[in-house]
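Notes to self, DUF1905 domain-containing protein:
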Amino acid sequence: MVVVFEAELWIWDARRSDTWTFVSLPADESEEIRDLAGGLRRGFGSLRVRVVVGTSTWTTSIFPDSARGRYVLPIKRAVRTAESLDAGDVATVKVELIDF
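result:
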């Protein structure tokens, strides 16, 4: 499954001092991923994904966020630097589920 979407980068409040930055996957696609994944979850309910933002590609995990009812994707500092992104900016994100 591949999801392409635009999302605003935001900082996780609980780790604000560490500036952990995320984007939220769209609600409909998050629901579809939950249905598709079924019981195939790793630690914290994570699912492995391949991500493309701009010219940056990397492998990471998405995590369920019960407060938002969506999966969230961490955008690591190296990608934010390479793509000139900061919290509040909107990025086009391609997420591909792997291990399915």
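- Residues 34 and 71 are 9 Å apart (CA to CA).
- The chain has one domain: 2-97.
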